[in-house]
Amino acid sequence: MVVGEVAVETDVVVIGGGPGGYAAAIRLGQLGKSVVLIEKGELGGVCLNRGCIPSKALIHAAGEYHKLAGLSKLGIELPAGDASFHMPKWQSWKESVVSQLSQGVDQLCQANGVTLVKGVATFLSSDRIGVETGGDFETYKFRHAIIATGSRPYIPPFLEPDHEYLLDSTDALKLQVIPHTLAIVGGGYIGMELGMAFAKLGSKVTVIEAADRILPQTASHLTAEVLKQARKLGMTVKSGTLVESANVSGGQVELEIRSPQNGHERLCTDKALITIGRVPHTADLGLAQANVSVSERGYIPVDNTCRTSHPHIFAIGDVTPGPALAHRASKQGIVAAEVIAGLPSSVDSPYVPYVIFTEPQIAGVGMTKEEAQQQGYQVKVASFPYRANGKALAIDAKEGFAEVIVDEKSHLLLGMHVVGGDASNLIAEGTLALEMAARVEDVVLTMHPHPTLSEVWVEAAEAALGHAIHIVNKPKVATS
Fold first, then answer.
1. pTM value?
2. 450 among known catalytic residues
3. Does residue 170 come out as left (phi exceeding 0), alpha (psi in the -120 to 50 range) or beta?
4. Where along the sequence do coiled-coil regions lie (predicted)?
5. Which residue is catalytic, options 281, 450, 467, 470?
6. In order of start, what are the domains of the chain with their CATH numbers?
7. How do 128-133 and 120-123 pair as beta strands?
8. What is the pLDDT of residues 349-385, one digit of tens each?
């Protein structure tokens, strides 16, 4: 390590090349700023390389494989013999997808004049940062900095992965063989998404969740269909259950678990996947040297321009309080870049959509009924079932419903939620409606194409007004 070299000067240093970091760097380049983007791993961060994209590739492949068993009712007869899933071939396909996206981000950064540096960054002061790059040490002097270092899995010490039997989500997405039995420790969205995917591929999956139900951060009526489908897939769900110890012996994982209903139990499984949660990646960044305040839990407080306690240093994405979602990080990155460039930009919308890629999918934006009531609204709630939608029946996706939360006085839309096929794409309409301060009549007056799943929104909106066409209207919509 060489210390004391002349610092390279730049307008902005961005630490972390994930969805938030590279979006910020590209936008800064567009706005004429000199930018150094520092990433210690692969460009695209966890989301592109080890999280969002690879997991959705597995979920899609598992879903297609699982559909094969039900094709005969659609008139599709397959040749005799059992179908099989070849995990190494899937791994190759996944890597090709990740590589294509990563190369695309690299090209976009270069096209916008972003300087890419691979290394580990540490603040030396509030205007200097040091980067270890393969044995060398480089120093950069900046006018502004953006912290976009993301998050890492939270792993209790007694569940520390050995990456062969005790796995984290990255390990699970690198498996070359589908495990016969798989325990998922943590029934949140990561655990349920991957657990259902492996169940579709043939694993006998057991989900262990400390809370009294799976997906505890999501409204219970939205998760009921997921639990139903999990049981149809042969999954065992042990809610209200704690893992007390884990031991690898004889090529298996032995988990000691405890619950009020079953007492102490021992669960033996081929693999155990730990998906308890994630924590911000802010340790060892030298934030104290940069005079950047950090909460007790490691989060960096920011204002609506993503500015930290130091006026020239910004933070975005999972290191900031709020939902750890890639699209939120990207939006924050663009806002931070524009503020640095002197534009009047801010994160001024409360409408951050979420998507859970379970079976069926869950997506939502805005308030739930309970949240709206807590804020003092008198609420109308109306829903429309997938089973009454022609397209849903035609594509054999009849499980689920769309729901609208409406202010009874003004008819303003307060929340929109959907459980069912393609919910991940359908929620974009809900996000735009809330962002535009739409009333329920605006959805009703918008002509939706037929036959499509998007019609569930207009039908739910009509139900809120008491004149849905394709379901029987209730005499009176429930009001808080």
1. 0.94
2. yes
3. alpha
4. none
5. 450
6. 8-153+279-340 (3.50.50.60), 157-276 (3.50.50.60), 360-465 (3.30.390.30)
7. antiparallel
8. 999 999 999 999 999 999 999 999 999 999 999 999 9
